[in-house]
């Protein structure tokens, strides 16, 4: 039966357009379907059974967020419950007095004290409600922030492998809704507490008035509870079943308005095509909304009918009790009020419990994520990375991505001495990027070892290790921040005065040949580089790469200890002249205490490397200097010749020596890399030792920035 429901549900979620565009429901989002199994548990009984655990979890989080506020909410809620009971009893006393013997004035006199009490209680109740609302309002954002920080800190502290694992990525996505739910759970908890206390008060008063009235109260409220639960259940199942469809529709909407897709949307008429699909998907979703609304109306009608019937029965019983002399008229008056407020309380309580249960599903995802993230967290502590590393050695390193059968790196062994420039080349997918991730300590080998100064990287303090690595990849982050911050972020905790920092940034800009780029920006380094903000500027891909190079310089420049600079396709967006200059600049970052590893398809950029390693299908197939590899006539020589031939207009005539392609012009440029007139003041070979702290590459990240998940 469960299987049947599930299959039917997922079939219903795929509209023709979704199938056409995405081949079915978006697989990426299937994490949502995790909740499918939960809907069956969404019964009144299981919701009530799970209540103590849910409320306990919420209270614990609230306790950590703001204890005084939590205590204040609890006190005011209990106070309101007591006030409600006292109020009802006061009303009862008023009824007695009004319906008792004596003249109207005497009766009013008799009712006056109870009336005053009822008035005071009402005022106290309103004050308490106000206090509770303000304290809960204070608590809610704190709880949300706490949960959000837990989530973000845990996500930022996991191994890269987890981030690249689709299963874990899915969990990251699903868990992001937990923080808002944790916030809403506070409100739902307060409301449920309020409902429970008020109900107990009304029930207690009713029992005192006449024991038969309590079951009648339950009879009135039960159909409403059933109705609310059924409507919520249906809505929940529908949301879960349709969520992928909904997201697919939103995705289409965002593609139509996105900046990156704007050109194809117009030129390829993708706009109209997607808009049609969007409309089609929206129509199917509207059908579901209509179905839900109809079912809701019917359910509520049935519940109201049943509740009304129970109400008639209750009043019937009361009439019978009065006629039979088992109940006084005054008591009956109070009972009517108590029944009405009690049944309303019970109905609200059922809905609150229901909401709590619904929100708890998302909070549960959040907690599950924290647990998983803790398992994948980069270990803290370990052996100190020595100041002098000497060399980094990879021994028979094999790495396989979790969702792949074949190894991306297969038994790779190589040595990278400090002061050297090492190049890694190979065709697409040969394992170059994987190799640098392993070298940088971002991925841990499945077998084999990486030694820093003879110590296995696995045992080293990873924070210290990262501090010795500078990484510039082709898809380096273009932070939506100012140009200055985009450079400074290479070492965000660099401890320096404003003036010193400014000087250092200027130096990095000059080094990267980015002076002209910054010069053209409306506010220089203070210009915001993020199109999504008003008044911000955008720069080209090549200009960004120069900013990236400046960031790398900023990161490496103040490192006195042995370190490694890894650059992966740093020049892909640069024009030929800028590319030659960039390679030269990168080479000049080499120093006795720094090793450079360069990954690129531009063969002209690697020929001056001390050692070139050639990767093929994850294996190291050749290594040596450019001349040695050319002489060997293997894979490298063939790659080099193929690329060189592209540059020669007439290869036979212009390139008599095929091993020495027509790179003369580039070589000339290499000898004078500072042709950019704005960049003439570029410093000579990098001086990493100046003003630098002794044992590390700069200020390390304070421990508080990357707290352990769940901390
Ligand atoms: N995150 C990942 N998950 C699964 N497989 C991956 C992942 N990243 C890379 N791979 C696979 O590992 C192999 C090596 O990829 P890698 O990115 O290291 O190659 P590359 O030499 O850097 O390629 P390119 O020159 O195209 O950048 C490829 O088969 C690739 O499909």
- Largest sheet data: 6 strands, mixed
Helix content: 55-70%
First and last CA, distance: 42 Å
Number of helices: 24
Q: Ions, cofactors, ligands: which are bound?
A: adenosine-5'-triphosphate
| Major β-sheet strand ordering | 6-7-8-3-9-10
Number of strands: 10
Q: Which runs of at least 5 residues are low in confidence (pLDDT < 50)?
A: 1-11, 27-40, 650-695, 699-711
Any idea what the shape is? Answer: elongated
Give Rg in angstroms: 36 Å
Report strand %: 5-15%
Q: Give the class from helix and strand content and strand pairing.
A: alpha/beta
What is the residue-mean pLDDT, rounded to a whole number? 80
Keywords: ATP-binding, Nucleotide-binding
Organism: Streptomyces pratisoli
Protein name: ATP-binding cassette domain-containing protein
Task: Offer a concise description of the structure.
This protein has helices at residues 2-12, 16-22, 36-39, 44-65, 67-99, 104-156, 160-164, 166-175, 178-209, 213-257, 262-267, 270-323, 329-376, 432-439, 462-467, 483-488, 498-511, 515-520, 541-557, 576-588, 626-632, 635-647, 651-654, 664-671, and strands at residues 391-399, 409-417, 421-426, 447-452, 455-456, 469-473, 563-568, 594-599, 611-616, 619-624. The protein contains 24 helices and ten strands.
């Amino acid at each position: 039966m469960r299987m049947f429901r599930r299959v039917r549900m997922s079939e219903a979620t795929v509209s023709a357009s979704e199938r056409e565009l995405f081949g079915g429901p978006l697989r990426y989002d299937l994490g949502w379907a995790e909740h499918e199994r939960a809907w069956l548990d969404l019964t009144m009984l299981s919701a009530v059974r799970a209540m103590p655990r849910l409320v306990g979890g919420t209270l614990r989080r609230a306790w950590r967020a703001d204890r005084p506020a939590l205590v204040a909410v609890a006190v005011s809620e209990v106070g309101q419950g007591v006030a409600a009971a006292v109020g009802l009893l006061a009303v009862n006393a008023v009824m007695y007095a009004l319906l008792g013997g004596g003249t109207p004035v005497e009766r009013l006199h008799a009712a006056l004290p109870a009336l005053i009490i009822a008035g005071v209680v009402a005022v106290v109740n309103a004050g308490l409600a106000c206090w509770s609302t303000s304290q809960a309002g204070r608590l809610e954002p704190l709880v949300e922030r706490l949960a959000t920080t837990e989530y973000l800190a845990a996500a930022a502290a996991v191994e890269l492998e987890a981030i690249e694992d689709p299963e874990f990525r899915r969990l990251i996505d699903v868990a992001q809704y937990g923080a808002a739910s944790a916030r809403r759970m506070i409100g739902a908890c307060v409301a449920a507490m309020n409902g429970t206390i008020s109900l107990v008060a009304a029930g207690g008063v009713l029992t005192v008035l006449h024991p038969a009235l309590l079951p009648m109260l339950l009879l009135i409220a039960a159909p409403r509870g059933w109705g609310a639960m059924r409507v919520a259940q249906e809505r929940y199942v529908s949301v879960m079943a349709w969520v992928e469809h909904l997201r697919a529709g939103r995705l289409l909407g965002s593609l139509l308005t996105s900046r990156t897709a704007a050109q194809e949307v117009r030129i390829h008429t993708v706009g109209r095509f997607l808009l049609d699909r969007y409309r089609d998907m929206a129509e199917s979703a509207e059908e579901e909304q209509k179905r839900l609304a109809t079912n809701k109306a019917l359910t509520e009608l049935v519940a109201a009918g049943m509740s009304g019937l129970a109400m008639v029965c209750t009043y019937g019983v009361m009439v019978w009790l009065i006629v039979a002399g088992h109940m006084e008229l005054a008591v009956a008056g109070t009972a009517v009020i108590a029944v009405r407020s009690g049944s309303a309380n019970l109905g609200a309580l059922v809905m609150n419990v229901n909401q709590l249960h619904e929100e708890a599903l998302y909070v549960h995802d959040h907690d599950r994520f924290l647990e998983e993230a803790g398992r994948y967290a980069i270990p803290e502590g370990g052996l100190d990375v020595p100041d002098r590393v000497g060399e980094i050695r990879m021994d028979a390193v094999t790495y396989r991505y979790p969702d792949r059968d074949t190894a991306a790196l297969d038994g790779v062994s190589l040595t990278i001495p400090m002061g050297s420039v090492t190049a890694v080349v190979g065709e697409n997918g040969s394992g170059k990027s994987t190799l640098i991730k392993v070298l940088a300590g971002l991925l841990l080998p499945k077998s084999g070892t990486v030694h820093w100064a003879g110590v296995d990287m696995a045992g080293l303090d990873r924070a210290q290790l990262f501090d010795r690595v500078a990484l510039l990849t082709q898809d380096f982050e273009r932070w939506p921040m100012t140009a200055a911050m985009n450079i400074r972020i290479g070492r965000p905790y660099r401890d320096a005065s404003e003036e010193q920092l400014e000087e250092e940034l200027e130096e990095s800009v000059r080094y990267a040949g980015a002076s002209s780029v910054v010069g053209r920006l409306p506010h220089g380094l203070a210009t915001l580089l993020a199109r999504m903000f008003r008044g911000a500027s955008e720069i080209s891909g090549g200009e960004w790469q120069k900013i990236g190079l400046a960031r790398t310089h900023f990161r490496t420049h103040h490192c006195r200890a042995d370190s490694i600079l890894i650059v992966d396709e740093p020049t892909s967006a640069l024009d030929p002249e800028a590319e030659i200059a960039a390679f030269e600049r990168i080479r000049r970052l080499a120093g006795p205490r720094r090793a450079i590893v360069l990954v690129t398809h531009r063969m002209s950029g690697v020929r001056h490397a001390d050692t070139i390693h050639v990767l093929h299908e994850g294996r190291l197939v050749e290594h040596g200097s450019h001349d040695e590899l050319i002489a060997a006539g293997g894979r490298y020589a063939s790659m080099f010749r193929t690329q060189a031939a592209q540059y020669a207009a007439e290869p036979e005539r212009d390139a008599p020596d095929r091993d020495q392609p027509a790179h003369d012009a580039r070589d000339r440029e290499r000898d004078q890399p500072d042709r950019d007139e704005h960049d003439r003041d570029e410093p000579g070979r990098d001086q990493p030792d100046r003003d630098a702290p002794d044992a590390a590459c700069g200020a390390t990240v304070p421990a508080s920035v990357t707290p352990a998940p769940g901390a």
